[in-house]
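Model it.
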Amino acid sequence: MNRRARGWLIAVAIALALALVAGMIWYVMQLSEPSPDQARDDTLPTESVLAVKIDNVAAARPQTGLSAAEAIYVTPVEGGLTRLLGIYTGELPDAIGPVRSARASDIELLAQYGHPTFAYSGAAPEVLTDLADAPLVPASPSRSEGYYRETERESPHNLYVDPAALPSPDAPPEQTVIQRGDAPAGGVVAASHTTNYGNATFEFSWSAREGWLITTDGTPVSDTESEELSAATIVEQHVDITSEGQADASGNRSPTYRTVGNGDATVLRNGRRFDAQWSRPSPDAPTRFTTTDGTPLPMGQGQVWILLVPNS
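Modeled.
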């Protein structure tokens, strides 16, 4: 073979090798970089749970992402105020917030939801230690991506999170926590109901078309994605509360509430009020509600609000 032919064959071989390498690089990139349609996963794994601690003072309203929650817990905090704990399953909203700090009581409450992801802004040092050992996936700004500040609001009421950027839950609950079904017979016709925390008041008004309309401190509850929120079921769950938690700048200690045990409750469904009992024998057991004669009292189809209030 002459020198010219040999050179031509070498050139062809080099070109083929370069093309092969380029093709392999392209293939690997296609595997590692999702297409635009796949870039965002807005749905949780089946029956898994994301919990987010949400601000609820006047400066934080209207919140973002409330209407997408399956359930919203109203939890007492220092100074007679409240915060919200949103429980999300299935499809997630684009944003949730304002996100605020965790409390020790959140750990016990969330234990019934398997190993959920828990998004919060921060916590007292002793609570951070407990969170690290708890059966959940801690997802604070120091541990997770997806958090950002909204410039149109003042700190600390301007921290939001993109839930699709948070780590996935470790495991779903072993049993369904929010049981749903038909309401039992009985109850008393009720057009409204009020729950007072001291410096925060919730009022619920029945609408046959929309369900229970919710007002906080005289203002209808809404979020930035929707008009006034409504709920299918309202639960006022009476729990033991002590004030032994971390003190705030004014010296008010954070209430510590217990959600394992049993106690009285009031359940609002279908324009009726039911005197009820709640029971939760262990942290990993779901809370169950019954009428005073022991008949199961499931929740209606739609959002559920559960207000944790102190035993009188």
